[in-house]
């Protein structure tokens, strides 16, 4: 079968060499949409304006797999990083030892400061707040059949404080971290592959729905499942820190996550229906504009197309059809109860990646470049990620054309530690301009926009270094918050839209 697949690639390559315009993705030269419209670019009155966080990023440490990893990193001194910004080193968390034990434990001290945080967000004009629940906080032990009362009380208070400040809660059930006990081996399997994994997950979801659900109308079951699987099971930079051979070896984990999503969707809707409550449930995918490193190279173009399909669309396609088939592998599975389990399509967008594939390295797979150092006009974040606003509207439009369901933009942001954060302002204005373009020119139905992130925080294997917040956090001064210039720009867009003067000031090279 491998010989047949290889022969097929060679044949396609030969054809593509002579007709390259017919095959694969094309690397774009235009970076922002051409727009002729009367300014200001304004958004609907009922548009959801928010910011987003994850529990492991901002809450005090709970007994999760990530907390265990963080503590082991300190014990073993594994705080190195890769050769390039944004390239994490397996089994390490970058510069974690450069921050105090209090910072490592409290993260941004959200637990003690969320009420003040919400007041600051309300003052900017935001009306929504996305956060995740810590499964480990609610079920710190495997033998629990009911959630920890203190954990439930904490989230009830968070939700009440958000609502008191006019912020509608958008709640994620799984944002990469799980209870530490979930990884104890059972019948030779750990984590999501344990035979009782879904039993524990469903107990958690049912408890959350019953006890917190009456106050929540917007749910995200899974955050970026393909990122979780890629970085946790292939790259080895997220727990469970595995490095399996390749996509076919992790496809069963993706299928299990889709089963978890389907179960959660039905549990949440059944519980809401029992009290005549209207809710929306979906999941969100990490999206990029995957484009060829070399436009003239047919393998780069074909591979970029395959990567985009496998990384972004395979999961959404499966939710629509109930059938998960991982692109470019033989793996396929019919998943009971999955078909039609998304009320919206969740999109997280962070820019452009370039894909390179050479014949002599096919066994190792494609190389991904986060930016092109040979392009002097290309803007990059502190993590070396290339800004590419036009790719945002393209992804939004493709999601709309594929599924015809409302879109929720649940993450869009940039690592920019500069003061003032002029690059973040360019990012924010140029990307929200693309959102307006998608809605008003392309006809895409978009419900809301959540900027990543509310606060500087703990960014997984990159540690505390990358600064994504519209509010800066001073880790050396009792977690003091201060709004960045971008917070004011965001407030102005919410209040009056994108003016012609704002676009001229912040458009950069776009």
Structure description:
The chain has 510 residues and is an alpha/beta fold. The protein has one domain (2-28, 44-506): Glycosidases (TIM Barrel). 40% of the residues lie in helices and 15% in strands. It has helices at residues 2-18, 55-58, 65-76, 101-106, 110-124, 135-138, 149-164, 197-212, 225-234, 247-274, 298-321, 389-403, 422-440, 485-496, 500-506; strands at residues 48-52, 128-132, 168-174, 218-223, 280-292, 323-325, 332-334, 345-356, 367-369, 407-412, 446-451, 471-474, 480-483. Strand 12 (471-474) and strand 13 (480-483) form a beta hairpin. Mean pLDDT is 95; it is low at 1-21.
Tags for this model:
alpha/beta, disordered N terminus, globular, eight-stranded parallel β-barrel, TIM Barrel, two-stranded antiparallel sheet, 510 residues, 15 helices
Give me a quick take on this structure.
With 510 residues, this protein is of the alpha/beta class.
* CATH superfamily placement: Glycosidases
Describe the strand arrangement of the main beta sheet, using strand numbers: 1-2-3-4-5-8-10-11
Shape: globular
Classified by CATH, the class is Alpha Beta
The number of distinct helices, counting runs of at least 4 residues, comes to 15
CA-based gyration radius: 22 Å
Number of folding domains? 1
What is the CATH architecture descriptor?
Alpha-Beta Barrel
Total beta strands: 13
CATH topology: the name is TIM Barrel
Q: State the major sheet.
A: 8 strands, parallel, barrel
End-to-end Cα distance, whole Å, is 46 Å
Quaternary state of this entry equals: single chain
Structural class: alpha/beta
